[in-house]
Amino acid sequence: MLAAIMVEQDANAQAEGLSAGDAPAQWAQHIQDAARRGVCLRVRGGGSKDHLGDITRGEVLDTRAWQGIESYEPSELVIRARAGTPLREVEAVLAEQGQHLAFEPPRYGFVASQSSEPTLGGVVACGLSGPGRVSRGAVRDHVLGCTVLTGRAELLRFGGAVMKNVAGFDLSRLMAGSMGTLGVLADVTLKVMPQPTVSATMRFDVNEAEALAQINKWAAQPLPIDASAWWDGTLLVRLRGARAAVASAVQGMYRERRGELLAPPVADGFWQGVRDHSDEFFVRARQAVMQAGQHGVTLWRISVPPTTAPLGLHGELLAEWFGGLRWVCTPAPAAAVHEVVAKAGGHAQPFLALQAGALVAPSALSAVQQRLHVQVQKAFDPHGVFDTGRLWSRRAD
Questions:
Q1: In the chain, count of helices (H) and strands (E)?
Q2: DSSP of 28-80
Q3: In what helix (H) or strand (E) does residue 26 lie, and over which residues does it extend?
Q4: Which of 48, 102, 104, 345 has a 20 to 30 A CA-CA distance from 124?
Q5: Nearest-5° Cα angle at 152, 150 to 15
Q6: Burial class (CB in 10 A: 0-12, 13-18, 19+), 3
Q7: What does the alpha-carbon distance between residue 179 and residue 181 come to, in Å, rounded to a whole number?
Q8: pLDDT number for residue 160
Q9: If you write DSSP's letter for every residue of 199-218 in order, what string do you get?
Q10: Which residues, in sequence order, are CB contacts of 36 under 8 Å at separation 6+?
Q11: C-alpha atoms less than 13 angstroms from C-alpha of 374 in its C-beta half-sphere
Q12: What is residue 126's DSSP assignment?
């Protein structure tokens, strides 16, 4: 059924005169050739996400040649750009109009190479969001449409270029987090938002359990809380919105728990560091992973219900998203981490480890979920051209 829908949408796109352009046409030839040779292709933009998943298999299909902003309507809060467009270029254009990507995609400040900078296609394909995700939605919530080159070498367009655009299956959002295992993103249409009018960050000295309880208590109230982070006995809460609302919230939170209002440069530097993984916690985590050698220290990205009590895993922890996202740098075995997280009703992703092959986590999907994943992948990629096993073990045909 899904395949039939895709074929129909492909026919509609061709009827509208959708032009593939030079790069997508070359990609299509590469895909057809890979299918004939029975090899896999690994989609890669700037390579800033090469630490995620198993990248040991697949010939590289580089998207960086396909760059450029195709359309931008500030009054409509919509931008459409090609997948290889550097993220910094998109953000620079938006900043000129006082707008931004509200989900705050990580820019990975620790990547020193200019050639390793994030691309817009990579931003959507990895599906990672920054501190503001808890209040303004994830990447997929901001994807309005996209053009995808599938494993059939078919160029399909999903979604559109308006805010209210829901008809049938919203397949464009399926691309968020797919990590190039379903096809190649040619272009992406995203919802953008005005930059916040007023921002303030409060700092509180509390332990982990107190921080989780307090931030969830505040989150349940009509306060303009935009982001939170706890690390090493310190809880930071970012408020954004109208000046009166932010000022009132700051006063109320101070009366309840005292705390400290951070100077804007200090606060901005901290949140940028958390977003781009250049903050001290992530610097120390990378050092710990590298220095541990074969002892197996791993930085885990753990998703659990926000109100979940401290997990008790040995190692340093940074908690974001009101406690819903927990970064843990620990030498604990992968099986032990998955067991603890599963009991909490969440899932864990190995985010950074010494050897890439160790980054693929055991599948936590049920039999029904696994079957659905396989069916979707076969609909997009029947020949297994993009089935590199980056996210999970390669399927058995």
A1: 11, 17
A2: HHHHHHHHHHT--EEEESS-TTTTSS--SSSEEEE-TTS--EEEEEGGGTEEE
A3: helix 22-37
A4: 345
A5: 80
A6: middle
A7: 6
A8: 67
A9: EEEEEEE--HHHHHHHHHHH
A10: none
A11: 12
A12: H
Residue holding tokens 């992968």? 334
The pLDDT assigned to 171 comes to: 81
Three-state SS sequence of 246-280: HHHHHHHHHHHHCCEECCHHHHHHHHHHHHHCCCH
- How many Cβ atoms from other residues are within 10 Å of residue 215's Cβ? 26
| Two structure tokens written together for 10 | 């492909």
Residue 91 has phi, psi (to 5 degrees) of -65, -35
**C-alpha pair distances (Å), 326 with each of 126, 230, 302, 319:** 18, 9, 5, 4
Secondary structure element (H or E) that encloses residue 355, with its range: none
Token pair of 148 as six digits: 């995808």
pLDDT at 363 over 70: no
Q: What's residue 233's pLDDT?
A: 96
pLDDT in the model for residue 48: 87
Kindly report the backbone phi and psi dihedral angles of residue 62, in degrees, each rounded to the nearest multiple of 5, phi listed first.
-85, 130
Which class for 222: exposed (0-12), middle (13-18), buried (19 or more C-beta within 10 A)? exposed
What are the structure tokens assigned to 179, written together?
Answer: 């990590």
Six token digits for residue 12: 């509609």
94: which 2 tokens? 């938006």
CA–centroid distance for 356 within its chain: 19
pLDDT digits 0-9 by tens, 378-397: 889 999 999 988 876 665 44
**Interval 5-30 mean pLDDT:** 56
The CA-atom distances, in angstroms, between 242 and each of 150, 247, 273 are: 44, 9, 25
pTM of the model: 0.86
Cβ atoms of 308 and 292 within 8 Å: the answer is no
Give 81-128 pLDDT, tens digit per residue: 999 999 999 999 999 999 999 999 998 866 545 567 899 999 999 999
